[in-house]
Design a protein that fits this description.
Layout lengths: L22 H4 L11 H20 L3 E2 L2 E2 L1 E4 L4 E4 L2 E3 L4 H22 L2 H5 L2 H17 L2 H9 L4 H26 L5 H9 L5 H21 L1 H7 L2 H4 L10 E4 L1 H4 L24 H4 L20 H13 L6 E4 L1 H4 L9 H22 L4 E7 L5 E2 L5 E11 L5 E8 L4 E4 L3 E4 L4 E10 L8 E10 L2 E13 L5
Protein name: Iron-sulfur protein
GO cellular component, one term: plasma membrane
Keywords: 4Fe-4S, Electron transport, Iron, Iron-sulfur, Membrane, Metal-binding, Transmembrane, Transmembrane helix, Transport
Length: 471
């Protein structure tokens, strides 16, 4: 007889009891119950602030123009008094890296709270669910409406819901596209039906994307489309704060009257009301343990706390806890991993602020003419250049072009230029070789441009001078 690995049954299912599936497990639509509580209020106030920033910033003016605008046609990005150009895109890359690193640090500390409180997908999904409640009623009414045959009442309620969904989606699209097309111009052209094809196409696409994502796909985006949900768990450790159910306190679960002490009937504090499931936007049962579907929104905490209040039990049956706390230990907040993340993030932010402050507000770009060289009337070798000067400030400036270094060269052409705020100009210049003999066919020639009256504001560039060796 071969040796067998001993098996132990850790859970049994009573076949006489019906198997109860969560909405997510059943595959049907998730209808959430309305609720109140601390974390709902935090999410509500946070979303209100984000909405004010997102929808309001585009309408601010700064010195006669839109304060924040990505001018694609002019290839420049305005942020209040600063103008950024394609040459400054390295700063955008750095900012995105800092944001990603910050997200990782937050995940180590408190799990997936970004998803539950500030992710646009979650925030707009909550808005769309509120529209459902307004037009179709609370959870029970919506479930009945789903099961009811089509009638005038059902058509009216569904039409109102989808009309409001589309309205919210359109306003969202206007708010987003208003950062790339002047928002006042966009709204005016939309009202007068004079939108150009490009703006109309983007407006339609973004409206449709918002309507589909927040109205139809909802939690499916978080579960199947968002890469963050797939790799965020690898950043957890035993001290990461996660939404969790205290099974030691809650089990065995079961219904009872309020005046009955749970210990007297052999039960824990969980009364198996399923309120935590009914309020969950992803339709999971938090009592099943840590799950990929959980977005750490705290809705189940608010729902459970309200039930505990009604029953006269202590709050916190469901709450933000670490694995260490669930095991009876202590949560270590200032652990080396988190401190390292915070220190690295602080250094990155400091370096970004320094780079932003040290960013030159004057740019010089030199292009030599594709012709090799030419001989002028005085018999000197001459190269032609196109020098692009960019005034990145918000004031008019006068600049002087010159050659730097000790090379045997002379600069000819219009060397002084006046530029308006944010203006770009191409200056044609020629460089003449003044040496009587040519020692090299190719030499470096150094250009510089400085602000008249402020010579410390200068930038330099280098190009190549070509001459015939047999001269």
């Amino acid at each position: 007889m071969t040796d067998r690995i001993p098996a132990k049954i850790i859970e049994t299912i009573d076949p006489r009891q019906p198997l109860r599936l969560t909405p997510a497990q059943a595959g049907g639509p998730i209808h959430t119950r309305a609720f109140t509580g601390l974390y709902r209020n935090l999410r509500l106030y946070g979303a209100g602030l984000l909405f004010a920033i997102f929808f309001g910033t585009a309408w601010l003016n700064w010195e006669g123009r839109q304060a924040v605008l990505w001018d694609l046609s002019g290839q420049r990005f305005y942020i209040f008094g600063a103008t950024f150009w394609p040459q400054d895109f390295i700063l955008l890359s750095a900012l995105l890296i800092i944001a990603a690193f910050g997200l990782f640090a937050i995940t180590v500390f408190a799990g997936r709270v970004w998803c539950g409180y500030t992710c646009p997908q979650s925030v707009w999904t909550w808005v769309f669910m509120w529209v459902e409640k307004v037009t179709e009623g609370d959870r029970g009414q919506r479930i009945k409406l789903d099961a009811a045959p089509w009638s005038a009442n059902k058509v009216l309620r569904r039409s109102a819901k989808h009309a409001l969904w589309l309205g919210v989606s359109l306003v969202t699209a206007i708010g987003f596209i208003g950062y790339f097309v002047p928002v006042r111009q966009l709204v005016s052209e939309l009202v007068t039906f004079s939108l150009d094809s490009g703006s109309a196409t983007w407006l339609l696409l973004f409206t449709a994307a918002t309507y589909l994502n927040a109205g139809w796909l909802r939690e499916k985006v978080c579960l199947h489309m968002c890469p963050y949900s797939r790799f965020q768990s690898v950043m957890f450790d035993k001290d990461t704060l996660l939404v969790s159910y205290d099974a030691a306190r809650g089990e065995s679960r079961g219904p009872r009257r309020k005046e009955v002490a749970p210990q007297s009937v052999g039960l824990g504090d969980c009364i198996d009301c399923t309120m935590c499931v009914q309020v969950c936007p992803t339709g999971i049962d938090i009592r099943d343990g840590l799950q990929l579907d959980c977005i750490s929104c705290g809705a189940c905490i608010d729902a459970c706390d309200s039930v505990m209040d009604k029953m006269g039990y202590a709050r916190g049956l469901v709450g933000y806890r670490s694995e260490s706390a669930l095991a009876g230990g202590k949560t270590h907040y200032l652990r080396p991993r988190l401190v390292s993340y915070a220190a690295a993030l602080a250094l990155m932010i400091g370096a970004f602020v320094w780079a932003l402050d040290a960013r030159p507000l004057l740019s010089l770009d030199i292009t030599r003419d594709r012709g090799l060289f030419r001989e002028n009337s005085a018999g000197q070798i001459e190269n032609i250049y196109s020098v692009k000067v960019i005034n990145k400030t918000q004031q008019s400036r006068t600049y002087e072009l010159a050659l730097s270094g000790d090379g045997p060269f002379e600069l000819r052409g219009k060397t002084r230029v006046e530029l308006a705020p944010g203006e770009i100009t191409d200056v044609p210049l020629s460089v003449v070789l003044t040496a009587p003999q040519v020692t090299r066919t190719s030499q470096k020639v150094h250009f510089e441009v400085h602000e008249v009256g402020a010579p410390e504001n200068r930038v330099a560039g280098v190009s190549t001078f070509v001459a015939p060796l047999n001269r």
